[in-house]
Every structure is written in C-alpha cells, then in structure tokens.
Design a protein that fits this description.
Distance between the termini: 49 Å
Structural class: mainly alpha
Helix content: over 70%
Shape: globular
Number of strands: 0
Largest sheet: none
Order of helices and strands: HHHHHHHHHHHHHHHHHHHHH
Radius of gyration: 26 Å
Strand content: under 5%
Number of helices: 21
Length: 548
C-alpha cells in the first residue's frame, strides 16, 4: 500500500505537501507545548479511545440491537465531529504566525487554504473512520441479507459522510461570516462565546436526546424533536438510501439534502471571502482579547500572592481564547449534567426527596469542574513571558501552592456548590439538602487537594507535555474506577442522610482525609521548586557491553 500511495502523494505540489504536514501537526497549539513534546503520541491516545468505543458498539450490534446501534453511531459521530470542529475552530483560517512566515514566501493563498482544509479534514476523517469502521460493518452484517449488506453499508457511509460535511461546513460558515461582518475586536469576543455555545450544543444533544425508533419518529408527539435535530435528518437519509424509510418521513431526508447544500455553499463562500478580505486584519490579532475599559477595583483574596495568582488565572480564563475553549469542554459537561437534573425536576412534581441520581450528578459536576480547571492550569499563556515570573519568585513554594488551592476553590468548587444549592431547591427535607451541600463541599476540597499533588507551578505559566499523562488510562480509569466509586459513595451518603450519627461519621471521615492530604501537600511543597518547563524523564538505554 505505501508503494502505491507514495507516488500519488509525490504528484502533489511540494508546497502543498509541506504545509499540509505542518498544519496537521498543529492541531494543538505549538506555542503551549514543551520543546520535547510528542504530538503524534498524544493524538494516538485519543484515536485509541475512539477505537475502543467502536469495539464496544460492534459487540452491541452483534449481540443485541443493530438498529439502535446504527442510530447511536449517528449521535456519536455528531458529538465527535462537532467537538473536533470546535476544538480546531481557528485551524482553517490563517493566524498571525502563518501570515508572518508565509507572506514573504512565494506561496499562493489558495495553496494555504487547500492545505488548511486538507489538514482539518484529515483529522476529522481519521476520527470518523476509527469510530465507525467496525461498528458499521457489524450493524450491516447483523441486519441480515434481507436488507442487503452492501447496500446498507453504502447507505450508512453516504449518510454519515453527509452528516460530517454538514457539521464541518456549518461551523466554517458561522465562523467565516462572523469574521466578515463584525469588527475584529468584537469578533474575537463573540468567537469565544460561539465556541462555548457549540460545545454545549453538541454535548447536550448527545446526552439529552434519546434514540427514537422509526415508528415513534412518525408520530406527531415527536415531530418537533426530529424536525429541529440534524442527526435525525441524516439518520432518515440513511434509511431512505436503504429503502426502509416510511413515506411519512421522507421530508426529513429532504431536509438533510438541503442542509448539506446550504452549508457547503456557505462554507465555500465564507472561506473565499475571508482569505481575500480578512488577512490584513489577522496580522493585528492579539493573543489576549483587550479588556473592556472601566473601573478596575481589585478585591483581596487572602495574601497578596493569592490575590495576584487568582486575578491572573481569572483574566487568563476570560481573555484567552485558547483557555476558554479548553475549559469550555469541561463546563459543557457540567452544564449537560445540570440540564439533566433540571429535566428530572420538571418531570417529577416538587417537593421530592433526594435521589441517588441527583447526588451522583452533583458529584460528577464537582469532579469535572475541578479536574477541568486543573487541566487548563497546565496550558501556558505565553512561554516567552515566563522570565518575568522566574525573576520575581520571592516567595517559597508552599505559598504558590496555597494560591493555586485558592483558585481551585473559588473558580471551580464554589460555582458548582452554588449551582447545586439552586438545583436542590425543590428537594426536601432541608436538613438533608444542607448535609449534602456540606459533604459536596468537602468532596470538592478533596479533589482540589488531589489535584495539587505534584503541581509545583504557577497556573498558566508552564509548558505542556503531551503524552506525559496517558489519556487512555485516565479516560478508562474514570469510567471503570471513578464512576463505580462515586456510586458507592452516593449509596453510603443516601443512607447516612437518614441518620444524624452516620452523617456525622461520614463528615468526620472526609474532614480527616482532607486534613491529611493538605498536610501531605504542604510537606511536599517545602522541598519542591517551582518549574516552568515540562520535560520528559531521561531514559538511558545501555547495550550491556561490559568488559570483564
């Protein structure tokens, strides 16, 4: 196969091949990475997660329900492609670095545009292929010869690729016309909001929308749901190509075809106009969006160092597009869980007692908020400016650890606690609600202390080393270990809330664990040094050549 592919690639222009390779490796911002970062290993870990999902779905299609698995694949494709498209929000449009480097070279704008689109499309294509290759084949085989295996396979991939094209083109159209119609400064502010809303939309559509059988889709009760959900349009297109779509639902397939045509035309138009009219404005694009003018009164949060680190972290999250985007992923999951909790409160008449699902949802919200903020802390704002922090490190390391702890408590634990208090307003009795809020606060503090283990940095000032933390290990560890552990904690808590003595014992155990973790972090910080560059551990390989 490589012998056949290499000659085809060599026929492409050299400039296109070089640019496409560089843009493909810049899915992650290179300015945030360590000098010894391995981007391919990082991307390989995410590909492994998608392949594991595909294996699980393939087993489900063979063993139980191929029809439901096929519909689930469309929802998963919407989620994965939507998140990748939003993560690579600016990858299709030239940034300031591209213009500074390529403007002085004899490279045509259409070559840059073609390389950008090819690189972004390659990332999406690899994700779609890793997720759908095995399950789609398993679904088509499990449906039996009555459907026609080849026809079902072709129908699935035509509809699935049409869905991918619609999502990718829609995001490009939205971003392109916003860049054309709005001033650059307003566009930078609106772009971050659009990214967060897109994250929330894709996550909420996956977690909130149920898989609906075709018979139910034709009922009037489901008309509004399927009419305004693009995933159902393309699933109906798949059924139409397979020849099993009811006549009453042909309008859904027609809507999918119209959506693909309109989004593609909009993406092509916006891209061409942007490359012709917005290149000059891009050269003046700031790394941080300028703050609005007005009164600047600084509140004190503990010591001066804690206040400085907190304000620096808060402004990094609110003004840096890169960090807003990364944190938006975790916040969107928190919002999706919160929306699910609100949905339960609407369906069940108030007041009602605390349930295990509500307790588990709030613990998951707290976990994602703390872990998300801790993950964003590892991404730097500007590595070139770290020399300022290096020469101004006048305090010992425990003071910086305390400042980071304050950031986690105020920016992650406190908002989730307030949101939980609002969501629990319909639950009774109130003393059980208050006890749960206290336990949730202690769990948040425990998660913050766990996040500080080994974190001897100033937030947003240390380079990121992809591959240092095994993403697959963390992901599957969360599903296999953390979720069952959280369910055990919830079952223990729901029993302890009925007994004041048991509730007091649980609270005391959490307090003792929290005190032990804080003492451990303070002891470790006394002998640690603040660092600003992530480097892999040096591994020395010997040849076992010894002289006897």
């Amino acid at each position: 196969m490589p012998d056949l592919v290499d000659p085809l690639l060599r026929r492409l222009p050299l400039q296109f091949r070089v640019l496409c390779r560089q843009f493909l490796l810049r899915v992650i911002d290179l300015e945030a990475l360590s000098v010894k970062a391995d981007v391919t290993a990082f991307l390989g870990q995410f590909s492994g997660i998608l392949i594991m999902f595909s294996l699980i779905l393939s087993a489900r299609a063979v063993m139980s329900s191929p029809t439901e698995t096929g519909e689930t694949l469309f929802f998963l494709t919407t989620l994965v492609v939507g998140l990748i498209t939003v993560v690579t929000w600016d990858s299709t449009f030239p940034d300031r670095r591209d213009i500074l480097v390529l403007a002085s070279l004899p490279v045509k704008p259409r070559t840059i545009l073609a390389a950008k689109i090819t690189a972004s499309s390659a990332v999406i294509a690899l994700a779609v292929l890793a997720l759908n290759a095995l399950p789609s084949l398993a679904v088509c085989v499990s449906l039996g010869p009555g459907y026609g295996i080849l026809r079902s396979f072709a129908a699935f991939w035509i509809a699935n690729l049409a869905l991918v094209l619609f999502l990718y083109a829609s995001v490009l159209t939205l971003q392109g016309f916003a860049a054309l119609l709005l001033p650059r400064r307003i566009f930078l502010r609106l772009s971050a909001l659009l990214q967060i809303l897109a994250f929330a939309y894709f996550l909420c559509s996956f977690f909130m929308l149920p898989a609906i059988p075709v018979i139910v889709m034709a009922l009037p009760i489901a008309h509004n749901l399927v009419a305004f959900t693009p995933t159902f349009w393309f699933y109906a297109l798949c059924l139409q190509l397979n020849g099993v779509l009811p006549t009453s639902l042909t309008w859904l397939a027609t809507r999918a075809e119209i959506a693909v045509a309109l989004s593609t035309a909009g993406a092509v138009t916006s891209l061409l106009l942007c490359y012709l009219h917005t290149l000059r404005k891009t050269i003046e694009e700031p790394d941080l969006v300028p703050a609005a003018r007005g009164s600047h009164r600084t509140l004190r949060f503990g010591s001066t160092l804690q206040t400085a680190v907190l304000l620096f972290s808060l402004r990094a999250l609110t003004r840096s597009r890169q960090h807003r985007l990364a944190f938006a992923l975790y916040l969107s999951i928190v919002c999706a869980i919160a929306i699910g909790t609100i949905k339960f409160g609407i369906m069940v008449p108030a007041p009602h007692p605390l349930t295990q699902d509500f307790l588990l949802n709030t613990i998951l919200m707290m976990s994602f908020a703390v872990i998300g903020l801790r993950s964003v802390f590892s991404l730097p704002i500007s590595l070139n400016a770290n020399w300022v922090l290096r020469i101004t490190q006048l305090r010992p390391t425990p003071d910086y650890t305390a400042a980071t702890r304050t950031c986690l408590l105020l920016l992650a634990v406190a908002p989730v606690l307030v949101a939980t208090a609002i969501l629990s307003s319909t639950f009774r009795p109130l003393h059980e609600v208050a006890a749960h809020l206290l336990i949730l606060l202690l769990i948040g503090c425990l998660l913050a202390e766990l996040s500080l283990i080994g974190f001897y940095k100033v937030p947003f000032t240390c380079s990121y080393l992809p591959g240092k933390s095994n993403v697959q290990f963390v992901f599957w560890g969360f599903l296999i270990l953390f979720i069952p552990l959280a369910m055990k904690v919830v079952s223990l808590e729901i029993r302890s809330l009925k007994s004041p003595l048991q509730c007091l014992c649980v609270t005391g155990l959490l307090l003792a664990t929290l005190a032990a973790l804080r003492a451990f972090n303070q002891h470790q910080a006394k002998s640690a040094a603040i660092h600003f560059e992530e480097l892999p551990v040096e591994v020395i390989t010997t040849l076992n050549l010894s002289v006897k």
